[in-house]
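Onboarding guide, step 5: your first structure request.
Type a short instruction followed by the sequence, for example:

Predict the 3D structure of this protein.
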Amino acid sequence: MTKWREVTSIECQQDFDDLLDVCIDIAAERISENWGLHPVAVVNDLSGGQRVLAPPRPEGGEASNAAMHEQLVHDLRVVAGDLRSYAIVSDVTREEASGTYLEVLLEHREYAMRILVPYLMPDAATFDLGPTKASVGQRFLWG
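The system replies with structure tokens like these:
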């Protein structure tokens, strides 16, 4: 049993490291191109594949980030049996602090984390990241 836990922990850490990097790359690209950043998920399938999921935007209206996040979680729950891990990245502003932040919610079958990354964009070509803050995250798919 200990060996299985050790392998799972290594897999979880590797998944989280990779998912965080991919999410920051996606955020930097979308924000710097003035698309803005609505919540986007990056998933690792049990088969080893990785893909990006974005909720569809409603016709004729603008959906809130919270509604889009809920849609992503719903879509992920439908296919949870085929997933090993996932991350959801969104652009958030913390009310108790000035500035903008990326929020990356990471979940593996064994663990969940929430990462906040402050960022600045002094110009269209520069995306500066500040120190990250990590905490235990909410489990949405595997409890």
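Each response can be followed by summary notes, for example: The chain has a mean pLDDT of 86.
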